[in-house]
Structure formats: C-alpha cells, structure tokens
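Researcher: Structure for this, please.
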Amino acid sequence: MNIGVLGGGQLAQMMAQAGSSLGLSFMFLCPDSHACAAPFGEHLCAPYDDKRAQKRFAKWADVVTYEFENIPLAVVESLHQQISLHPASSVLSVARDRLAEKLLFRALGIPTAKFAPVDSLTKLINALEDIALPAILKKRTQGYDGKGQALLRKSSDLSVAWEKVEKVPCIVESMVAFRRELSIIAARNQKGEIVFYPVSENHHRDGILRLSISRQDDPMQVRAEAKIRSIMDNLDYVGVMALELFQVEDQLFANELAPRVHNSGHGTIEAAETSQFENHLRAICRFPLGKVSSTQTSAMVNLIGRLPVEAQIRKIPGASLYFYGKVERPGRKVGHVTLTGSDCSPEEFDLRLAALLQLVGESELAGRQFFDFTRANSHYLHQI
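Model: Predicted structure, token format:
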C-alpha cells in the first residue's frame, strides 16, 4: 500500500520507519531539498501548490496524510477531492486556525482560557478590557513552537506585540494559572473505534517542548479521554490526534489540538505495544488498531539546537537516541531521547532522567524537577 505524506520532517520520517513492518511504501511531497524523511521513501521535491507534483502524488498514493498543520488548506482540499485523505481537509480547516479551534472547544463544552479574535491594534486594546493583562497574542495560523506569539504584560507592550505578529488576524488569550501542562494522544479508525495513550506531563521552555513524562494511571486520564473523544467524534476523525491541556485545580482546559502524530508521543515507540506512528498508519489504512498499554515508566527529552555526544547518552541505562539528520540550528528540534525504566525503581528512574537532562543542556529543568540532583546523580555523571 502506498502512503503519501505532505511534509518531510521528523514526524514523516518516524511514520515511514513505523510503516516498514506493515509493508507500506512512502512518498513525501515536501519543498525542502534536505527533507530528513527523504531516505525512507521517494521524495517529491516541489512546492505544495505545484499542480504537476500534486497530480503525480495523487496518482501514486492509495491514501494521503500530513505531518503538520501549516500546509496550505487549498492544497489539502484539492487532494481530498482526488484521493482518500486523513485526517480530512475539514479537520485541518479547524486545527490550523486558533479561533476555529477555540470555538469548537466552546461548542463542545470544553473549558478554555478566555479569548477574543483581533484583527487590528484597536480591537486588541478593546479586547483587553475584558480579558485583562497579562495575556498572550497569537497568530490565528502559521504558529508553532512559540513562534507567531507575543506576551502582553503591560499596556505599553501592545503596539510592539502587534508589529511582532505582523498585523495579521490573531486571537488574544488570558493567561491560565495551571498546575500542570498535559497532553493526551488517541487514535480513531474509520469505524469510530478509539484507543487512548496515557497522558503526558509536558515541560516547555521558550515555547518549545523540552520534556514529556508518560503518567500511567494519572487522575486526569479519564477526563482527558472524554475531551479528546468528544472532539474526534464531532470531527468524524480518522488517525492520531493530540490534545494539549492545562490542569487548573481539578479541571482540564483545552489549549490546542494537533491533527497528527505529536512530539509528546515519541516515547510510545519504546513504551507502548503499538507506537502512535504505527497506529496512525493503521487507522488511515483501515488496519486494526494496535494495543497501546504499557507497564513501564518512560519519558522523552527533546534535543534542541544541537546534538549531544552520542556515547555519553548511551551510557545511561534505558536511553534510546534518535538523530533526525537535520543541520544543527538554535531552536530547532534535531533529535530526541526516550528513557524507559522497566529495570529500575521510580527513584532510580528519576536519577537517570535528571542525568540525561543535564547532558542535553536542560540542567535548570533537571535541578528544578528532580530531587537532590547534584548529590544523587553524581555516579552517573562520573561514569559518563
């Protein structure tokens, strides 16, 4: 079976790697001549709106999917008229627009931060009479990893922020006093059957995910499942979806959804019976969904901007290292490390994870998040 993927980054790469055991072939339509997914299939290097490339792509593929939201909607809608495509173009029209996304959450009764659409500096000033500072201004489309956003702390920030977001349609959101940032990933097939992965507790810096910890038996699991189920059923969704959430006291507020495999789910490759990547392919290809249960502790650490020394990482028990084949660049996701702990106690797992965080340049997070790092972890750091 031939799978066409719009995009050629690390998510497309990991989909293709998962698809090899299912006997699937891949073609990536991606304008980047250095697309890191290219070695894992055929790379159709052309702009997304290239009609000749689209025709070849649609003729070759049995089903099409996409790895990120910022593909031109018109391209996805055109392909959807020619070939089976999941998630549907109607899903992308919601997920790529922060306002449409928030209105969907509201319609389904899912709490969110207070928000308002703004398309001028005057409307931004007026909206803040209700929302109040501090707040966040976000582009409605084309934003990711903290890009296309501006933090508003005081009135004098407004004009500078409006310039920063290039005066395009935005939403402004109130700040949420959350206890934890969580995400839940689920896969839904064309029969409406759904499997849910354990929620992940996520830690960001500079708008970029740094650490995800899989939380088995989390008290928020059932509530998170109910929210993502309502969204998937409403959209008649097919494939993997991630829902990012804020835990506020005992409530879950929706932040945003991702109509694709998600960074916080990379650890499912090692920690789940069936990874998010394989289950996405199973869903769009009409294969039975795979089991997602896991009994081991796991975490995922992103490698941002630069690659660590491989030998140092591999000395940490339970560490699995992924380099994406990307050129190092500040703020860029160039790889990740999954850490599993089937052979150790929770306390020992904390020690290994803290050592890993320090090695990849997240020493502040390690010191803040895990107990007695400097003393208890010294034996790992000395070995490495």
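Researcher: Any notable elements?
Model: The chain has a mean pLDDT of 92. The first strand starts at residue 2 and ends at 6.
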